[in-house]
Structures are given as structure tokens and as C-alpha cells.
Design brief:
Largest sheet: none
Low-confidence stretches: none
Distance between the termini: 91 Å
Number of strands: 0
């Protein structure tokens, strides 16, 4: 007999997938040392509210000035650029 003939008589049976049956199977599995290994949450860093990152190319003198001013104020360069943009928008509306 070939392998396909031996398996021809097998049929798929629907499995019980109700909440009670699933809970019972999980309890038996945990009692025997099996644990659920699916990730509980998305791994990695949490997304920042600042999603659009800019990496402008500027002359070295300007880049050094921005970096030193941000360090002097105790903020990031991105926060400094945001403040400068707010000031620019205010000056445009005046």
C-alpha cells in the first residue's frame, strides 16, 4: 500500500473551539509546563508623539550654533527648531 492509500480514509473532524473548551485545554497545558509564548504587546520602543523627524543639511557653523544653543537651553535640537518655527510663524502673521 502506498502512503496516499493509507491516508485516504482519514477525514477532518471539527474541533471544539468554545471559550470553555479552550480554557480547559489551556489549563491542562499550563499544568504540564506549557506556557503561551505569543507576545503580549508590540516589542520595541514606544512611538514618539513627534513622528516627523528632520535631518536638515546645514553649514557646519550653523549646525554647531544650533547644537550649542540647544545644549545651553537644556533641550534637544528638535525642540529648539520647533521653538524657532513657532517664532517664525508668529512673525509672519504680524
Amino acid at each position: 500500500m502506498s502512503g496516499s492509500n493509507r491516508l485516504a480514509g482519514l477525514t477532518a473532524r471539527p474541533k471544539d473551539t468554545g471559550a470553555a473548551e479552550v480554557r480547559k485545554v489551556d489549563e491542562v497545558g499550563e499544568a504540564r509546563g506549557f506556557v503561551d509564548r505569543t507576545p503580549r504587546k508590540k516589542p520595541g520602543r514606544k512611538p514618539s508623539p513627534r513622528t516627523h523627524q528632520l535631518h536638515p543639511k546645514v553649514f557646519p557653523k550653523v549646525g554647531e550654533a544650533i547644537a550649542s544653543e540647544a545644549e545651553r537651553l537644556g533641550i534637544t535640537q528638535g525642540q529648539l527648531i520647533e521653538q524657532m518655527w513657532e517664532f517664525y510663524e508668529k512673525s509672519e502673521t504680524d
